[in-house]
Write a structure and sequence with these properties.
This protein is mainly α. The chain contains three helices and two strands. Helices cover about 55% and strands about 5% of the residues. It has a two-stranded antiparallel ribbon.
């Protein structure tokens, strides 16, 4: 799967997927064959970190 290049659009996409379809970031990455490290690095560049307790980047 090709992810959005823009980090703000990526943030919206990932958080929507987490909210609507997946119980964790690990589950999302495994299901869609995504690189968790790539996602977390790209979103940390705009000061967003994954919060497992609420299952979203904030």
């Amino acid at each position: 799967m090709k992810l959005p290049k823009d980090p703000i659009i990526l943030l919206s996409y990932i958080n929507t997927q987490l909210r609507d379809n997946y119980g964790s970031l690990d589950e999302l990455c495994q299901s869609l064959t995504l690189d968790k490290q790539d996602i977390t690095t790209r979103l940390s560049s705009i000061n967003y970190e994954y919060d497992e307790s609420v299952n979203r980047f904030k």
